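From the pipeline queue, job 12 of 40. The input is one protein chain; the requested action is below.

Action: predict structure.
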Amino acid sequence: MRIILIRYHNNSMNIPYLLVRNKQKQKPSQKQKTDYWAGTLDEKWITKRVVIDMTVGLVMTKQKTPHQNKQHHPVLLESVLQVLSPKAGQSYLDLTAGYGGHASEVLDIIGESGSATLVDRDANAITELKKRFGDNENVELLHTDFVTAATGLIRKGKQFDMVLADIGVSSPHLDMPERGFSYAREGPLDMRMDQQQATTAADLINTMSEDELTHIFRSYGEEPRARRIARAITTHRPINRTSQLAAIVEDTVGKRYVGGTLPRVFQALRIAVNDELGQLSLLLTVLPKLLKPGGRMAIISFHSLEDRLVKQFIKQASYGLEATLANLTKKPIKGSKNDLHPRARSAMLRAAVK
């Protein structure tokens, strides 16, 4: 195995990366496509295999990626900054602030004369946000879901120059086995983004009928083997651990299909537990009211169900003489093409301006 250091030709920040190349021993030529394991130099992990266009260039010293929280790497950061176009003194609303990756970059740009409201329903995220921004008097933190936050801010008559919603599960959620979001990590079947919520994934798995589970897997995971999986689950209950559910799914669909099926099953359960599509639909109806004239909104989604809702909303809101928005992204900006982080590969960004 050979280790080389490179700089990506399409990396606007020119961040050094560590690549461990498999199988091939010869030095690759410029812009050669080949298989690599990739990870930033300031990270301890090495991501899964990806196919990359690259330009080889020796990096002599280790450099740290600027403004990166060690627990969360903001998805499509450069694209978000481009469409939101933050300026000094502006106001920013982050409805899914997480661990503050996007917020940190925006706050650096809007400066002390700007202001930010950061929202998250996850208690762990709020704790980290307090550590990171608690001393900043221009930052307001709200521990609630984004629909409750949005409607409350509208009642107060608040509007913003920029609004961001990064929909879906974050990297810290996936990395914490006790949260139960990942089929690759042993843990309880929880999947609650708000841990004050009563219903867990285990509750759904163990109480829903075969028809109800089939509907969840088919509607929220677009899983073609939804009925077979639902029947197997009802036969093997109780199921309380991620490993139990993963094993049942594998036994049901076989090793050939399990790699694609497990993500869909876990996604479907997560969406159902957190009412993600319902929450997003409610948010979209009130988003324009949160924007000042000329204000910009950006929404990052991670699967076709969410993106379809966002696409239809922006299309309707930007159509005709009574349009309230102008579309900034006729096609989604995709993480697979614009972000090197592996968990961004399914991300889709759409934006609009009031």
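Job complete. The domain at 67-354 is CATH 3.40.50.150 (Rossmann fold).
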